[in-house]
Write the structure tokens for this entry.
Amino acid sequence: MTIDFLVTHSGGFHADEVLSSVILTRLFPQARIVRSRAPEWIAPGTDRIVYDVGGQYNAAERIFDHHQRGAPLRPDEQPYSSFGLIWKHYGRDYLAALGIPEAHLDAVHASFDKSFVLPIDLTDNGALSPATAGQLAGLTLPALLETLKPVFDEADPEADNRCFHAALTVARHFVEGKIAQIAAKLRAEGLVHKAILATGEGRVLELAMGMPFRPAIVKAGADHLLFVVHPREKDWCLTGIRRAEEGFELRADLPAAWAGLSNGDLEKACGVEGASFCHNGRFIAAAKTREAALAMAELAVKEALSGRESPAA
């Protein structure tokens, strides 16, 4: 069986069929996108996949609509859009085509579904309002993709199709970028776990390069760690560890006396030659050498622990 056509509806477009097209065009690069509501196009066929149109959900016939009565629901009864249905059936193949290791396929698939696909599904079905984003509502991905639609008085009959393909190009970067981030976190997890084992009961985790570290620290139950040190392009970085995935509260702040200082002023404040910068928010600092970064880290640990041990006022 050869898929020659990827069929979705004509007219105005939304995020769900644009994002579905990202997945399908990667898997079937030879197929032509047909945007139509003509019965002969939206009917089942061995040469096509039909999505966001067609009036039914029938995976065997490769029709993935969600506008009909009795539309499909997720196991938790939240609604699918066409994107969710396409991701359910073709997402793992798409990830394999991107080169995601087989051992990570299920984890990446589930993470992307939860963090990226589900919000699109809910928004498209009216179960989630972009207004919940407050002033950022107009900057959500569905809203941004819709800004690529032609304006109401555009006279070119091909404007809808031209703009759809422009939106497809933009959407592809967001999908692939998000998946790359998820996959990178999984790769980093193994590296961070090895570093945690090497650190033992120490309070400072040293990594060979900058990478996502908090998920692995939490997974390992390494509650004793307070700071992370790693090299950057030309210097070394000392950073705190957030208490929660959301928010900015740290397990320990860098010393207040360092806040907002740099170079000679910071060297005087902390007594470490090579100290070069401390953010005013006290969540990140920099040093010219590894030795200076580790020395700053040990001073930060000492102050943080002494503060915890001080009797309450």
Remarks:
- The first strand starts at residue 5 and ends at 8.
- Strands lie at 5-8, 32-35, 48-51, 57-58, 63-64, 204-206, 227-231, 236-240, 275-278, 284-287.
- The radius of gyration is 25 Å.
- DSSP finds nine helices and ten strands in the chain.
